[in-house]
Amino acid sequence: MTILQASRYAGEVWYDDVRFQTDKRPWFGQLREIAAGDFTFAVLGDRCGMATAGVFEKALEVVADLKPDFVLSVGDLIEGYWKDAADARAEWEYIDEKIEATGLPFFHVVGNHDYGNQVMLDVWRERKGFDYYAFRAGDALFLVLNTEDPPTELSDEFIDMIKKATYNVQNDPEHMTAHMQAFYDDIVSRMSPEQLEGMSRIDLALSDEQMAFAERVLEENRDAKWTFVSMHKPGWKSENERYNKLIGLLDGRPHTIFAGHLHAMEYSVSGNGEHIQLGRTGGHAHGEGPESDNVLLWVNVRDGKPTYRVMHLDGIGEIGSYKPQTHSQEAKK
Predict the structure, then answer these.
(1) Which GO terms describe its molecular function (predicted)?
(2) Any domain includes 158
(3) What pTM was computed for the model?
(4) Which end of the chain is more exposed for a tag (fewer CB within 10 A), N or C?
(5) How do residues 253-292 score in pLDDT, each as one tens digit?
């Protein structure tokens, strides 16, 4: 197997220019030079599937006000699974315009909704060029991976069920619970026990080329004080051999792995690595606890080490919503 060279672009960003010969880039803005020292960034969770209108947009407004050095996603920014490229382009046009308007460097990650069939893959490549890459921010290395390489295509029947449920949820949000129950009942009635069991598994796809790229980047950046890996599906919940190889490559390096996909906020530690599963940032809730709230993650890197703050978007209010009140003398006592 040939080890692909990691090529530099825009100073300290690398991509696989053997596999991807394109002038398109899966990010917006220019990362400022962070030679060393402290910096901040935000991580946004899944906007889709079955997005609640305005939530991701609110998160973008918040980060635009707070001005981190850059923003990471964990994928699933569009509903996707389109058979017509024009539909996929229209979804990307809408959300890309919102992202670019923040004026912040924003780094995309492939999610299954973004890249779930050949049409979606082709539109991604047309608009964003490549789907895995790496960059340096000061003493930290960021490795962005694609867990849909290649994508697992769903049946037309299942895609039709997803599209029907998405339409119902987005056009009748007051009855979201009923629509989701109908979606679940539809799945159970049409699928075998074996198919249902398969849906509960976390299946990753990491190509030989991508693994070779990751290995080379990690080897060439052994001086990094901290390594951040961003992917869509939480590999630590899979039995994927290539993910296990990645963990071997990270052995001995302080690192954090960000993922999404399951729409629930989780934090765990394994050896010298942290696993952070992002909660949703607009996608449909998979549960009812605080871990299922709409959130964004704020990360401070100080002296080479990260600290984290989870911001619940429902707890961030607009100043105009706090109206003047009349206070009686009795109430002041």
Answers:
(1) hydrolase activity
(2) no
(3) 0.93
(4) C
(5) 999 999 999 999 999 999 999 999 999 999 999 999 999 9
